[in-house]
Fold this sequence. Notes:
Blueprint: E1 18-22, H1 29-41, E2 46-49, H2 51-55, E3 67-70, H3 81-93, E4 97-99, E5 107-109, E6 114-119, E7 134-136, H4 148-167, H5 173-176, H6 183-195
Parallel strand pairs: 1-6, 1-7, 2-3, 3-6
Antiparallel strand pairs: 4-5
Helix pairs in contact: 1-4
Amino acid sequence: DTGNKYAIGSYKIKIGTTWVLSGVEGTGKNLFSNHIMRPLIGNRYVKEVLITGLEDQFNGWLEHCLLCFVNEIQVSSSQHRKIISGKLKNWITDSPLDIRNMGRTRYDANNYCNFIMNSNEFNPVDINKNDRRYNLGDYQNNKLVITDREVKVLIPQELNAFFEYLMTRKADIEQARVILETQTRHDVIQAGRNSI
């Protein structure tokens, strides 16, 4: 499926900030990407990558991607910590991007990709107090209690109504670009300072 019945894939707006969602296993981070956002936006426009995908020199998947879920992000565990942090900063805010596909000449393409990062760790990304890219949700300690029927039957049945609701809301791009100064963000900044 390269399209979707909702046509959200036609909206190409780069926000320039990202959300980092963290919590224990089973809090619904992948449910959100696979069962809500992917059906709404379309397979061609939604990608999921692990940190190893960020370490790869080839990034052709970024060209048509509108929403990328970076799963199990833990930048501090990467051997290439500074490279990964630099790539993420670049991909979150910059356009155009240098696109590299295997066996092809690299070229520039507009970057409309927005990111949501998921982790089971408390401090999954390196940020400093002057950062203008990362919003951090509160760490979720409680698992999501949901049945297979809810995931496989009810969520798909409700997607159309959810889409129609979303289309009644006016998007505030400027508000979406605001970094929220939360206690979680402060704690992650402090944890990064203490690890250096």
